[in-house]
Structures are given as structure tokens and as C-alpha cells.
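pinned: reference chain
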Amino acid sequence: MVDMNVLWVFAHPEPRSLSGTLRADGARVLRELGHEVRTTDLYAMRWNPVVDRADFAAAEGERLIVGDASERAHCGGSLSPDIRTQQDELRWADAVVLQFPLWWYGMPAILKGWFDRVFVKGFAYGVRDPGTRRTRRYGDGLLRGTRALAVVTAGAPEPSIGPRGVNGDIEQLLFPLLHGTLFYTGMDVLPPFVVSGADRMSDDGCAAASERLTERLRTLATAAPIPFRPQDGGDYDDDLVLRPEVVPGGSGLGVHVRR
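pinned: its C-alpha cells
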């Protein structure tokens, strides 16, 4: 057994919800397996999701260019203390569990704001490889080596979030998070754990969902990540477009995964 430091980022306003039960059961199982678990409960801590010049100690009246200001503040140690605390938690973590309900085809605003404020330039992105001078991203980001698992509850029933469902394929709905955020920053992104029909679930269904999550968490340290194509793995040209011989004629989100 590989013992890990696991950061559980929880974004649901009701601790007595199905999401709250899954978090409690999941954290308990991880500790029983020998892992150390820390929780960032965004609603409980009243996390501020709004990027503001106060994050970077930017002077009033100064034009705020967020990327540049965040990089200067990160390198200079002047980021807002709540941001620095979350960055320290990420540095500590070998794995991150991101748990949230699917609202309007995406994560709750409070979690999006956690990414906006914590994943600043110089910490999560925007650093060049000294040899190639290419920006490190898509498999070679600054959070490389950290495993990531999204735990998602959705009100829609399972068939409707499948490949032919009216709500769209859940893997594609989560692509901006899994590929565009987590893999972009270098994380090893595990297939998401999704609980469908969460709004109308019976007690037996809740127990079954908890058991399924337990089984997934047992392999948190060893499960194979989604085989996204790395930026510098040879599949993309200098314009970051798939080479013609890679999935010839193919397009869409799925072509960025090696099948």
C-alpha cells in the first residue's frame, strides 16, 4: 500500500446531503487505508471566489493585468494569505479529490473561484521549459505528479448524460476541468466518479453510491489516469494542432485522448 497525502476539496453548501455523506465516508476509508486526509470545505470556510486586486496587493488606480499581477505577487510572496494557504495544501498533497454537484453543466461558482484565485501564474501555469522554451502545460505543468479525482453528483439520470443523452456525454461536459485545468497543470487525471440521479436517490441508492466510491478510492494511488495526449509527446505540431497522421480526419474533444 502506498500511503499518500490527500487533499479533499469539497464544494457543496449542505453537509447533510448525499455529497456530504460521500465525503465523510470517502475520507474515513482513505484514513483506514493509511492515507492522511485534509479537507478544504469551501462553503464552510466562506471562501471568496472573486478575483480582486486585493489578492495581489495591487495599488488602487493601477491597471490590473491579472496574469502579470498574480505572477509578481506569487514570486514576491505577497499573495493574499487565504490563497497562499491553499497553495501550501496543494504542495503537500500527493492526490486531490475535487467533489462538487454538477450545476448548469459545470462546477459551482465557489469552486471555479477557487481555481481562479489559487491556480495563479507562476504557481500552476505560465512557466517555460529552460531547454525548449516552450510553456510547460498539458501533461508537463507545474503540478505534475499530483493525482486528481473528480467526484461529481448530477441530478440527471444516467442515460441522459451518456453519449446519446439529451444532456450530453458526461466525459465531454467535464472536459474543461479534466483536460483544460487539471491535465493542463500537469496532474495525472483519473476517470471521474459520477453519481447520476442524485436528486431522487433512495437510501439504498445512496448506500450503493458510497460503496462504489469506496471501491474507487481503494485504487486512488494505483489507477491508470486518463491517457490525454501530452503537448510535447509528438502528437501536436508547433501550433499545438494534432498532426495530420494522428486520428486522420478526426475532430472534437475525443481526439485528445489516446484510445
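why pinned: The domain at 5-225 is CATH 3.40.50.360 (Rossmann fold). The chain has two domains: 5-225, 229-259.
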